[in-house]
Backbone:
């Protein structure tokens, strides 16, 4: 199976696809597809890689990803333990406004919905106060068929397009046109960094994973991600630090810093504040 792009198997007699997942952990590779994706995470927590950005995700949250937007739900490490009893559960709806649904989205009555989806090609997280409404509509689609399912889908689109004050999941300039080889190379780099962030990583080591010289890798990585290796690695580490700080399961800020790959508390505090806008202690105070 290709990492990028990823093909969604759509039934010939359906215009949307609804998928219920109950698995030990989420799909482990960064991927993208032509369909817009709406995912309700019923059970599970970890790191969401969305385009060029990372977010903490938790049970109950709902996310929309635009067409061809690279994304990955990275489950927490304990989900992969041999004796783990944890599992993930999610309901996902895939739809492509430019395929079988194109005639529907060309209707004048659908202009507001079409414009809304174009405005949020970079995805968004559904606000918590709308979880009940949106999740209920997702369940209605999951448990219906035929024209009833299509009607429920239209009601879902209506609710989504009424959402206000949404923040994109990623920068709008993430690369959308990308061939298979580039996609697989970028995904392998992302996955390697995400799996090894807790130890010292050198430019030479990561470049070797991409089969490139360090100089060529720097130019390539910046072109395709808008980040330097150091800035991206810092975002991964701070994202993990945020999860540890808010979980309450740690032995102090210093232990979090070293667990996430930082070799000094001073550097950790400086990087943490530059990314989150708060000190580690101030961030914990919010929770």
Residues:
């Amino acid at each position: 199976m290709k990492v990028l792009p990823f093909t969604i198997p759509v039934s010939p007699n359906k215009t949307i696809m609804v998928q219920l997942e109950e698995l030990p952990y989420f799909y482990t590779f960064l991927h993208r597809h032509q369909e817009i994706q709406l995912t309700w995470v019923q059970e599970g927590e970890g790191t969401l890689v969305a385009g060029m950005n990372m977010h903490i995700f938790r049970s109950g949250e709902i996310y929309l990803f635009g067409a061809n937007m690279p994304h990955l739900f990275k489950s927490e490490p304990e989900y992969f333990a041999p004796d783990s009893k944890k599992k993930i559960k999610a309901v996902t709806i895939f739809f492509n406004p430019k395929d079988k649904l194109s005639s529907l989205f060309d209707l004048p009555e659908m202009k507001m919905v079409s414009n809304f989806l174009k405005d949020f090609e970079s995805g968004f997280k559904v606000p918590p106060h709308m979880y009940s409404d949106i999740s209920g509509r997702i369940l209605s689609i999951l448990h219906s068929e035929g024209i009833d399912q299509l009607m429920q889908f239209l009601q879902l689109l209506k609710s989504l397009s009424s959402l206000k004050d949404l923040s994109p999941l990623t920068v709008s300039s993430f690369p959308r046109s990308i061939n298979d080889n580039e996609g697989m190379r970028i995904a392998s780099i992302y996955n390697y960094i995400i799996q090894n962030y807790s130890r010292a990583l050198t430019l030479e080591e990561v470049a070797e994973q991409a089969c490139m010289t360090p100089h060529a890798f720097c130019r390539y990585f910046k072109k395709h991600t808008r980040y330097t290796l150091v800035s991206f690695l810092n975002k991964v580490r701070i994202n993990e630090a945020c999860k540890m700080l808010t979980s309450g399961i740690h032995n102090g800020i210093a232990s979090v810093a070293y667990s996430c790959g930082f070799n000094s508390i001073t550097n950790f505090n400086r990087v943490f504040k530059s990314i989150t806008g708060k000190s580690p202690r101030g961030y914990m105070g919010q929770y």
User: Anything to note?
Assistant: The longest strand covers residues 16-23.
